[in-house]
Amino acid sequence: MDLTVEGKTYINGSFENCCLGIKNGKIAIVKKILKCDDHIDFGSKLVLPAGVDLHVHFRDPGMTHKEDFSTGSKAAAFGGLSCVFDMPNTVPQTTSVRSLSDKIISAGKKSFVDFGFYAGVAHDNLDELEKLAKKCNGFKIYLGDTTLALLFDKLNLKEVFKKISAMGKPVLFHAEDEECLIKNRSKEKNLGDHLHSRPSLCEEISIKDILESSKGVNTRVHICHVSSCEGMELLRNRPANISCGITPHHSLLSIEKDMGSSSFYKVNPPIRTSFDKETLFNSLKNGFVDVIESDHAPHTRDEKANVFNDAPSGVPGVETMYPLFLYLVKKDVLSFQRLISLLCTRPADIIGVPKGKIEVGRDADFIVVDLKDESRIKSDDLHSKCGWTPFEDWPAVFPSHVFVRGEKLIEDKEIQVSQGFGRFVGA
Ligand code: NCD
Ligand code: ZN
Ligand code: ZN
User: Fold this and answer.
1) pLDDT band at residue 152, thresholds of 50, 70 and 90?
2) Is 267 in the pocket of ligand 1 (CB under 6 A)?
3) Global confidence as pTM
4) Which of the residues 125, 355, 356, 399 could staple to 345 if both were Cys, CB 3.0 to 4.6 A apart?
5) Atom of ligand 1 lying closest to residue 148 CA
6) Is the CB of 146 under 6 A from ligand 1?
7) Does the CB atom of residue 263 touch ligand 1 within 6 A?
8) pLDDT digits over 369-391, tens only?
C-alpha cells in the first residue's frame, strides 16, 4: 500500500468508520483496520468522494483574461472537485482535432485537477467528428445562441444523432431554441428583460426537439442547465439514455429575490422565478435530476459591470458548488445520498471516468470535511481569475483536504502540488 487513510467514510450510501488502502492512485482495499507506513487518521471527520463537474468554461485558449486552466482548475480543487470537463466555446473553438489536441497539451501543463474536453459540433466539422470522437470526452451542441456558441441548426439534429450514435461518446446540449430566442429578443435593461428575451418556452421547444430526434438512439444524451419548471416536466419520463443537469444558480437563486437588477446575474438560460427555482431544487432532492453542474462561466467584474444589454452572460461557480450544497446537507435540506449522487457518482458514470465513488478499483479521489467548519463565501478567498461570485456571503462548508489519485492536492486549505499535476482523462 502507498497510503492508508482512516476516517468516517462514505461508502455505498452510508458512513463507516474504516480505512482506505491506496495503491498506484487507486482505492485498492477498504477495511475496518488497515495501516501502512504512510497513514493518515482523520478521526471523526468525513471522507467523501471528490466531485466531478461536467460543465466548466475555463476560457483557455483565447480569453485567458477571464480565466485560464491554471486558475480555473485551482478553484475546482479548493471546491473539492477532482475532475472537470471543459466546453468548446474557447478561441479558437474546439471543433478540430488540432484545436482539441492543443487544448489537451496546454491543460496538461497547467491543470491542478484531472480534466476532459468536449468537442463542438458545427455544420462545417461533421466530417471530422469521427476523428474528434477518438480524443474528446463528449460532444457539445448549442441549439441557441449564448457566449461564443457554435450554433447548430435543429433541422440537422436527427442526422447528427445518427452519425454520433456510432461513436460511443456522450452528446451534451445547450437547450434553448434559436428561432424562439430571436422571436423574443429585445433590448435588455434588467434581469426581467433578460428573462422575457429567453422565456421557458424556448427551453421547452428545444428539449422536445432533442427528445423527438433522439428516439431510438442509444447514445448518452445530456441536457445541460435545465432552468425551468416546464423543461423539468418534459424530462420527467425521459428514456434511460437521457440525463439532465441543474446548476447551483438556477436551483438556489430566483429573480424576485436575492439580487436586484444586476447584470452580474445575467446568465443563459436565465435565472427564473422562485417557483422555477423551487421546482428545480425539489427535483434535485427527489432524484429527478442526474447531476449538479456548475456551468462555471467566468467574466471579469469590468465586463459584467457593462450596461446591461452589453454585459456578457455567465456566472462563476466551480469553487462554491460542492461547499454550498454541503452546507445544505448539514442543514438537513438535502441528504448525503442525493448530494454524492448528484455531484460525484452520476457525473462520473455519465461521462465514463472511474471516479466519483469510494470503491475498490476507482481513482482515490476524495475530500475531507468537518461539518462544523462552516464559513461565509468571500470573493477574496476564491481562486477564479474573475474575482467575484454570485454567492457572496452565503454559508458554506469547504473541504480541509482534497486527494486526487491518492495524492494530497490540498491540506489544511493550502495547495500541495504544482500546476500540471492534473491529467487528461480521455483517450
Ligand atoms: C456560458 C459562457 O459564458 O461560456 N454562458 C452562460 O451564460 N451560461 C455559455 C453557456 O453555457 O451557455
Ligand atoms: Zn449553455
Ligand atoms: Zn456553459
Assistant:
1) very high
2) yes
3) 0.98
4) 356
5) 4
6) yes
7) no
8) 999 999 999 999 999 999 999 99
